[in-house]
Amino acid sequence: MAQTPQGPDRAIRLTFSYGPDGIQLIGRQAVVMQVPPSDDSTLPPTSGLAAELRTSGDEPTFRRNLAQAVPHDSEVFAPEGEGGMHRAPVAPESGVFTVLVPDDDRAEDLVLLVGPRDVPQSIARPVEPGAEPGRPQELRRFPLREGPGGNV
User: Looking at residues 10-17, what average pLDDT do you find?
Assistant: First the structure.
């Protein structure tokens, strides 16, 4: 039986892939590591993505803003002899990113939120009818734990 980290330094590293089929959770790993403090969940993410841990009552317990999880641009190198590199507004079609969250016993789901601006086209979705302008929208929801009893 695998050992599960215990104590205040318990964390879960979640690995996601994104591409033409949307965002998928491809891995969960229990780790012993201090997680940086939560970003303010009372303020909407202004750009990109945010990951929130939510209780069974849908109350947020932790938020991590992920402004660069899905890049908006790519490095472009000039031809040899012309020097330098610059960034071009071309987002990659697919990729992988990770999120480190505390292993909070109160949390049941991890919710990916899309901010109101600077959302790469590879993950953008239409605004839901009745959505409040400028507020984040739920992009995907994943169980925080997997397996019998929600084990990591």
Answer: 94
